[in-house]
Design brief:
The chain has helices spanning 2-28, 35-48, and strands at 50-54, 59-60, 69-70, 76-79, 84-88, 97-106, 109-115, 120-130, 133-138, 141-148. The chain contains two helices and ten strands; from the N terminus they run ααββββββββββ.
């Protein structure tokens, strides 16, 4: 009779273990939470893809008192879907590139890696995109603002052929 009681207890224990095992297994397979971060990440990366022209103001001459102004050199930053990055003064001219490298986006952070002749420089920025404006910040301060140009205004910016933009802010 003791054997029967032991068998019932063992069978009950094994049944409880089986139920717990199934509960843990089924709940760990749920992917409800996985979709949200992936979608946000894709949305953020696709939001920065494109050509951005830095917003610049004319500098008034200092010390002359005549109010002379000098035209700032335009700066463009190009972020491609494949993670490549280009900073240039003239996207139509390969020789005008300032730097190139790769970038990654994690939530509201932008990481740019630029390979120089001697070393690799890594920069980290916080960024905000509202409509067609990009704001880059470092150490809590805004360091630059950019305006998005139409999607891929220079289809062959890496190749030899380049198209001239028609809506680059009148420049």
């Amino acid at each position: 009779m003791k054997k029967t009681t032991f068998d019932k207890a063992l069978l009950g224990f094994l049944g409880l273990v089986a139920i717990l095992f199934m509960g843990v297994t089924l709940s760990s397979c749920s992917n409800d939470d996985d979709d949200v971060p992936v979608d946000k990440k894709k949305e953020k990366v696709s939001a920065i893809v494109g050509t951005w022209q830095q917003d610049m103001k004319e500098k008034v001459g200092e010390g002359t008192g005549e109010g002379e102004s000098e035209k700032p050199v335009p700066v463009f930053e190009v972020y491609q879907k494949d993670g490549t990055y280009l900073k240039t003064n003239d996207p139509k001219n390969k020789e005008a590139k300032v730097e190139e490298g790769t970038y990654t986006v994690k939530e509201d952070s932008l990481f740019v890696e630029v390979k120089g002749t001697d070393a690799v420089r890594k920069d980290a920025f916080k960024f905000v995109i509202k409509e067609n404006k990009l704001s880059k910040q470092q150490k809590g301060e805004e360091i630059a603002t950019y305006t998005r140009l139409k999607e891929n205004p220079w289809p062959g910016w890496i190749q030899e052929k380049h198209d001239t933009p028609t809506d680059a802010g009148g420049h």
